[in-house]
Design goal:
The chain is α+β, with helices and mostly antiparallel strands. The chain has 3 domains: 58 residues, Arc Repressor Mutant, subunit A (Orthogonal Bundle); 64 residues, Winged helix-like DNA-binding domain superfamily/Winged helix DNA-binding domain (Arc Repressor Mutant, subunit A); 74 residues, Ferrous iron transport protein A (FeoA) (SH3 type barrels, Roll). Helices cover 41% and strands 18% of the residues. It has 8 helices and 8 strands; from the N terminus they run αααββαααββαβββαβ. The strands form 2 sheets. The chain has a 6-stranded antiparallel sheet. A two-stranded antiparallel sheet has the order 1-2. Strand 1 and strand 2 form a beta hairpin. Helix 1 packs across helix 2, helix 1 crosses helix 4 and helix 2 crosses helix 3. The radius of gyration is 19 Å and the shape is globular.
């Protein structure tokens, strides 16, 4: 069975969308920036290959074989992101697009060498878990920063990596995985959050705060 790069992209995208609930063909089209008919055609093809199950009006779900491929591609992607940052000096806002281009073409040996060179890492530069070679991905309990109560502190675990401009802005504010953030105030009517991170106070819009994920615990402010 030959799996094209486009098929791998679909499987990875479905896997990632599935983490947020039911996966619709319209959600896939939006994520991959392709037309609805293109998605329908590819979904049918992948279903014929037993890589996913699709029931009209009920969404898309990967089979075990489809998930295995998705996790392998995701492992390549996240290892490449970390390698580009740690070994080649890329900034964390540049690694996603570069890894997208490379994830389909590296060999398993190259993947192993990257993992070994990086000390068998568990997360990528944005805090997302790296699947193991066996296709196991650890579950990390997180919540959006906007959900943290006033007066509480939490540790940044992950940030969304889909927008380079947003990553540059988050970096300027100090929102890196491992940083401690304290919510000082929440303005009413969907107003911004006032937070302290790295000893500096910032006003953070709620939309941005929904792209920052923190640990479910509430560590004391250092």
């Amino acid at each position: 069975m030959t799996i094209s790069h486009a098929m791998e992209d679909y499987l990875k995208t479905i896997y990632l969308l599935r983490q947020g609930g039911e996966v619709t063909t319209s959600a896939i089209a939006l994520k991959l920036k392709v037309s609805a008919p293109s998605v329908t055609g590819m979904v049918k093809k992948l279903a014929d290959m037993k890589l996913l199950r699709y029931t009209r009006y009920q969404g898309v779900e990967l089979t075990e074989a489809g998930q295995k491929i998705a996790l392998e591609v995701l492992r390549h992607h996240r290892l490449l992101e970390l390698y580009l940052k740690e070994a080649l000096g890329y900034s964390w806002d540049m690694v996603h697009d570069e890894a997208e281009r490379l994830e389909h073409v590296i060999s398993e040996e190259f993947e192993d060498r990257i993992a070994e060179a990086l000390g068998w890492p568990e997360t990528d530069p944005h805090g997302h878990p790296i699947p193991t070679k066996e296709g196991v991905i650890p579950l990390i309990a997180v919540r959006e920063l906007v959900e943290v109560e006033v007066g509480q502190s939490a540790t940044v675990r992950q940030v969304s990596d889909r927008d380079a401009g947003m990553l540059r802005y988050l970096a300027a504010l100090g929102f890196f995985p491992g940083a401690t953030v304290q919510v000082l105030e929440k303005a009413p009517f969907e107003g911004p959050l006032r937070v302290r991170i790295g000893g500096v106070e910032h006003a953070v819009g709620r939309e941005l705060a929904r792209h920052v994920y923190v640990g479910t615990g509430a560590p004391a402010e250092a």
